[in-house]
Structure formats: C-alpha cells, structure tokens
C-alpha cells in the first residue's frame, strides 16, 4: 500500500500499517529530508494469509502537520473446507416419501457441489441441494458430497437408510396372514386326502381277500 507523495516541511514520522479488524503490530520510523522536497512513503505488510485474514486494511502516514491514509480490501482465496451435510426430514426415511440432502462448505471462491452414490461411477446429481422423490429401498446406501473450486476439493460421506413404507408393511402383514391361515388348511387338506386314499386302498384289499376266499 502506498501513501501519496509528501512535500516535506520538517522532520517526518510515519506509523506503518493499521488493520481495522485489529490484531496487527504497529511500527514507526523517522525519516529526514530537505525542506521543500518531496518523498514517497510506502507501507508494507507481509504475513502468511489464511481465510480469517480477509478484510479491510489501511495505511496511515502522519507528522506534526497532518496525516494521510489509504485503504484496501484483502480477499483471501482458499480451497473448500470439509463439507457438512444435512438431511430433511430428519429421522427414518420411509419408502414412498421424499428426502432432501443439503451440502455446505466454507470456500472462497464459492464451491461447486457434486453428489455421488456408492458403487456408481457417474455423478448422481450436481448442486448444493439434492432431492430424491418417491424414494425406494434401492435409494438407500452411502452418498458422497464433493465440494470443489479452483484451489482444491473436499468431500464428506453420509449413509441414507430407507425404511419400509406403510404399503409395504400392509403387504407384509397380508402375506404373513395368508401363510398363517393357508398352511394349516393345506396341511389339513393333504392329510384328509391321504386318509381317504389309505381308506380306499384298505377297502379294495378287503374286497380282494373276500373274492379269493369265495
């Protein structure tokens, strides 16, 4: 950052770098120059930047005759942080219902989102919000949300569990009822037929014996 040229009237003192957000050290120095000449004062700030360093910075130069300052906005770019994923509605997801998955990541510039399902090569969906309607048991499994920008990428995995819907539960109850009712009926029917067959054979044998005796 640079301050405008000064016309020197006397000994000049500079205070270097002030940050609006605070947390920056101040240094000062004295310069000597010939009265009536012009000097240029530079402010320099060197620091390993992080995402929290974005903000407005100002440089101020002053002496006993006044001061001048200039400011700039520092925009720090960084790769996406590990995303967080929310599921709506929360709790057990039932067959036939709808579910919305939302992925969010801290990134600058803003991240682009892609969804993948376990054991599938191509993306399942793109965008921060992924909605599945008329969900079935096949939709259950692991999903991965990937956040990406020009500086890198990061991902998070969640497991989606799909429970049986009301229609499925009703069908299972009907099947169980049929099994409980029909199996005994079938067994009784078979047993009755076997008894009749055995009785018929017995009668035939008796008739044959009577004919032989006669």
Helix/strand order, N-terminal first: EEEEEEEEEEEEEEEEH
Q: How many domains make up the coordinates?
A: 3
CATH class of the largest domain: Mainly Beta
Largest sheet: 5 strands, antiparallel
CATH superfamily of the largest domain: Immunoglobulins
Total number of β-strand segments? 16
Give the overall form: rod-shaped
Structural class: alpha+beta
Strand content: 35-45%
| Count, helices | 1
Unreliable runs: 1-21
**Head-to-tail CA distance between termini:** 134 Å
Task: Specify the helix fraction band.
Answer: 10-25%
Radius of gyration: 42 Å
- Mean of all residue-level pLDDT scores: 76
CATH architecture of the largest domain: Sandwich
Tell me the CATH topology of the largest domain: Immunoglobulin-like
What is the secondary structure topology, with strand pairs?
Layout: E1 6-7, E2 12-16, E3 18-19, E4 27-31, E5 38-39, E6 55-63, E7 66-74, E8 84-88, E9 93-94, E10 99-104, E11 112-117, E12 125-126, E13 129-132, E14 141-149, E15 152-160, E16 162-163, H1 166-213
Parallel strand pairs: 9-16
Antiparallel strand pairs: 1-5, 2-4, 2-6, 3-6, 6-7, 8-10, 10-13, 11-12, 11-14, 14-15
Give an overview of the whole structure.
It is built from one helix and 16 strands. By secondary structure, the chain is α+β, with helices and mostly antiparallel strands. The chain has three domains: 6-74, no CATH class; 84-163, Immunoglobulins (Immunoglobulin-like); 167-214. A hairpin with a 2-residue loop joins β6 and β7 (66-74). The longest helix has 48 residues, at 166-213. The protein is rod-shaped and about 155 Å long. The model is unreliable at 1-21 (pLDDT under 50).
């Amino acid at each position: 950052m640079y301050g405008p040229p000064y016309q020197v009237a006397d000994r000049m003192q500079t205070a270097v770098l002030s940050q609006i957000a605070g947390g920056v050290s101040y240094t000062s120095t004295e310069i000597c120059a010939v009265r009536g000449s012009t000097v240029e004062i530079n402010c320099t700030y060197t620091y390993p930047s992080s995402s929290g360093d974005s903000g407005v910075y100002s440089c101020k130069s002053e002496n006993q005759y006044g001061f001048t300052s200039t400011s700039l906005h520092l925009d720090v770019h960084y790769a996406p942080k590990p995303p967080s994923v929310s599921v709506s509605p929360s709790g057990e997801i039932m067959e036939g219902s709808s579910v919305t998955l939302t992925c969010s990541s801290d990134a600058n510039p803003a991240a682009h989102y892609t969804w993948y399902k376990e054991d599938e090569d191509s993306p399942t969906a793109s965008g921060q919000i992924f909605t599945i309607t008329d969900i079935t048991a096949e939709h259950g499994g692991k999903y991965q949300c990937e956040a990406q920008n020009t500086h890198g990428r990061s991902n998070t995995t969640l497991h989606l569990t799909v429970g049986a819907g009301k229609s499925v539960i009703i069908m299972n109850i009907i099947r169980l009822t049929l099994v409980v009712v029909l199996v005994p009926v079938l067994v009784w029917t078979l047993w009755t037929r076997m008894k009749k067959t055995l009785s018929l054979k017995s009668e035939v044998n008796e008739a044959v014996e009577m004919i032989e005796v006669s």
